[in-house]
Write a structure and sequence with these properties.
single chain, mainly alpha, 72% helix
Amino acid sequence: MGIRKHIPNALTCCNLLCGCLAIMCSHNALGALLFVLMAAFFDFFDGLAARSLKAYSAIGKDLDSLADMVSFGVVPAIVGVRYQMYPITVGSSPSDFDSSVWLPEILLAIVSFVLPLLIAVFSALRLAKFNNDKRQTENFIGLATPACAILYVSLIAVLKAAVDIPYGQSVSESSWSLIANGKVLCHWCYWLPVVIAPVLCWLLVSEIPMFSMKFRNLSWSDNRDRFIFLLIVAVEIAMALIGGYSFPAMLVAVITTYIIINCLTAVFRRKPAADK
């Protein structure tokens, strides 16, 4: 088989490399997002190459999980923590906190750092579950780690663009004025990623069936959820282009739509069984 058997692993290594580069620029959510998307690209094609070339191996399976853990588990966690730290580190000094931050606020700040880190923990649980779950050959059970990472990093990129704190500018002189002088606990832009993090952690290890984008045929009955999703996404992309919304905002809308469709499908498909 020669070189062909190494192609899937080479693509997986490219995934891992993109994850490392995303960590290096985690202070820039948009830059990290671009590397996460590149990692997702390589993650998709390493599996495709392995199937096409019939180049399966135990090492490839383990390597794929390790690369996914870095690119889609560690990266969103670090980007989340860096985002939580940004209003504190820009234009603030230790003396600000000695005089203005009380113990409850410090505890809340610690929580705001810990919750994004849980994405890495639950991504590891998700990947371990995926490797040992025979039900996930065609579709997923729970949210896939690439979708989780892209959603979370895109959300932070949107929020950072909305807040737009120039580097080196004082917090009190920026649009973070509600959290000036060390008061970093009362702005919705600050708390939204913190609130979203545990929701994503739950989705990663949940038992909610979620369709993959693998089309075996073009039958409506076999691919109804996929077709509905693609139709909605087409509308969202058109609206984003017309409205001038950013690319990260469009990604947030697309992946949120994917999650909502799967959750609604799971709820309505369970009802007949519950009635019996």
